[in-house]
Design a protein that fits this description.
The complex is a heterodimer of chains A (about 120) and B (about 140).
Chain A lengths: L3 E8 L2 E10 L4 H13 L4 E12 L1 H16 L3 E5 L3 H9 L8 E2 L2 H9 L1
Parallel strand pairs in A: 2-3, 3-4, 4-5
Antiparallel strand pairs in A: 1-2
Helix pairs in contact in A: 1-2
Chain B lengths: L4 E9 L5 H14 L4 H22 L7 E8 L3 E8 L14 H6 L7 H8 L2 E7 L2 E9 L1
Antiparallel strand pairs in B: 1-2, 2-3, 3-5, 4-5
Helix pairs in contact in B: 1-2, 2-4
The chains are: A alpha/beta (about 120), B alpha+beta (about 140).
């Protein structure tokens, strides 16, 4: 995918997805596959680092909506970090900050999984 | 339209693979007339949501169908129209999404129209003959 990429790393017991580029109805399936893989591998403590994310449409937000309940019911969470202001604004318009843990820095998310 | 100038148009197949091209097309026009980055971002997102809705709902992912996009501006307004010949959209059936309810039901769609209405100053749906038009206006 030319304008979207995703990479997975592991820190302590937390899986981190680094997403870069533009997340829309065309590229959302890549994020979905990456989340599915983590869940299949029983990795439920997930951080999505959005530092390289330039753009998100509602199709991208829909992926987070589809998996959050499953992950939380299995004792984990999907925490979002390092968003730029434009990307945060889209999450904010749809009311995500009250239902999702959206943090400034990846380290804060790693710490909150320890608690 | 009296006083309207600087109209550009684009015709694309109804496929998500053209989303970036459609966003860049409207952003180029918006930047050309001097909109700030916040407004340009909002217009990119609004047209993305409208085009995605046409692909999914008007044409049911039939990529052989066409979507015509026009963008124009005068001194007071920037407007974008997307036209298709698929299933019509009834705006009266639209409701503001309840995020928590949708998460519980694992529903992921239905947010595009809400976003468009938040991002743009006016949104109109018209059906003329076989053609559906969504017309979105941003006041300058």
């Amino acid at each position: 995918m030319k304008n979207f990429s995703i990479a997975t790393r592991q820190k302590q017991n937390v899986s981190i997805l680094d997403i870069k580029g533009e997340l829309d109805a065309h590229t959302a399936s890549h994020l979905e596959n990456a989340l599915k893989s983590l869940i299949d591998e029983e990795r439920y403590s997930i951080v999505v680092n959005c530092s390289g994310l330039d753009y998100i449409a509602s199709a991208g937000l829909g992926v987070f909506m589809a998996y959050i309940e499953d992950v939380r019911s299995l004792g984990g969470d999907i925490k979002l970090t390092n968003m730029n202001d434009r990307v945060y604004n889209v999450f904010d318009l749809l009311g995500f900050p009250t239902l999702y843990d959206i943090l400034e820095e990846e380290e804060e998310a790693l710490q909150s999984f320890k608690n | 339209m009296a006083g309207t100038k600087n109209i550009q148009s684009l015709s694309v197949e109804a496929s998500t693979k053209h989303l970036a091209e459609v966003r860049d097309f409207v952003a180029a026009h918006a930047e050309q007339i001097g909109l700030d980055q916040k407004d340009v971002s909002e217009i990119r997102l609004a047209v993305d949501e409208a085009y995605t809705n046409i692909i999914k709902h008007a044409y049911n992912n039939n990529a052989s169908m066409k979507v015509n996009i026009e963008i124009g501006s005068d001194g007071d307004q920037l407007w974008i129209s997307l036209m298709d010949e698929g299933d019509s959209f009834d705006p009266s059936t639209y409701h503001e999404p309840d995020l928590m309810q949708r998460i519980k039901e694992k529903k992921r769609g239905g947010m595009g129209v809400y976003l468009i209405r938040k991002l743009m100053d006016q949104v109109q749906y018209n059906r003329k003959g076989k053609t559906n038009e969504i017309r979105m206006v941003k006041n300058l």
